[in-house]
What does this fold into?
Amino acid sequence: MWLELDGVTRRFGERKVVDGLSLGLPRGSIGCLLGPSGCGKTTALRCIAGFEPVDAGVIRAHERVLSTSQMHTPPENREIGMVFQDYALFPHLTVIENVAFGLHKRTRAARIRRAEEILATVGLTEYRSHHPHQLSGGQQQRVALARALAPEPTIVLLDEPFSSLDIELRERLGDEVRGLLKSQNTTALLVTHDQQEAFAVADIVGVMRAGRLEQWDSPYQLYHRPRTRFVADFIGQGVFIAGEVVAPLTYQTELGVLRACCANGHGELTAGAKVDLLLRPDDVVHDDASALRARVCQRAFRGAAFLYTLRLDSGTQVLSLVPSHHDHAVGEYIGIRIEPDHVVAFMPGEN
Ligand SMILES: Nc1ncnc2c1ncn2[C@@H]1O[C@H](COP(=O)(O)OP(=O)(O)OP(=O)(O)O)[C@@H](O)[C@H]1O
It folds into this structure.
């Protein structure tokens, strides 16, 4: 692994803000720590950058040990680049001077050559003599990224890289930043509380909760195979419905017998045992031919699709994502069927 954390813990007073964090990031891949505000993402990133010591565990990067509770490599000797949330550009320096800033170990000519090269990569050559305040938010972010990439760091860390940008720009820049990092074969780790952002940029995403990593996995796995209820709730939308074991991975529910793709937890899997089944909006398919009917109680137009909130006669609600040419009014009954491939079972009481 190019970046490896093993049991990393950081305390503030009695509180473990980062609690036994372990993860591995292969060379050239983009990772993301995702979680609600205050879960410890930024602190984890600061430990990797060397701005915080660790109280336990080991941080290794490019096969060097950078931090343990006994030793701490200073940030400037880690060969790690950082893009700060507010970009932290120097207001009195031009774009090219900002980018060249971290290249002090090279000759003046080599510094300028490298700065020009990376500015061209981020598409800002014509802004080389501008000052940061003359640039848009997106351009400032590209300068910050260029500055972090210029010294050819072994790893780049990005702290909430899109938080100061408006939503439309965020989506476009997500793709752009991913393209840039990939074009340089950079290993990167970003932190964000925004799932869309994490999924747009990263190959592998870790969901954090109260200092702990709940799951470190591909976006696809996080959505379709969440290992904990917290991950299931935090990633995407969905509801839980009650079920009872009839056979391994097979459950009786009010929507009929459903087979799950996987089951979480270590409860007894004997017939009759109770489980909760996660149904995503894409697991509930609109089908006029189905005898199973549900009433539309809410609908949200998403352009290509409607997200319907449907109510069964029992009172249970499910969500269904339906192509938007199926335009049904609130109060109407529509046929549904469950697409069983992705249903995930959780033992009641398990987190
Ligand atoms: N230097 C510090 N001293 C004491 N407590 C701190 C310090 N730095 C962070 N904390 C606390 O640690 C917790 C985690 O902070 P951190 O910034 O890592 O969370 P985060 O997940 O990045 O949240 P956000 O998305 O809001 O930035 C917070 O409750 C914060 O108040």
Summary: The chain has two domains: 3-233, 238-346. The longest helix spans residues 167-183. The mean pLDDT is 91.
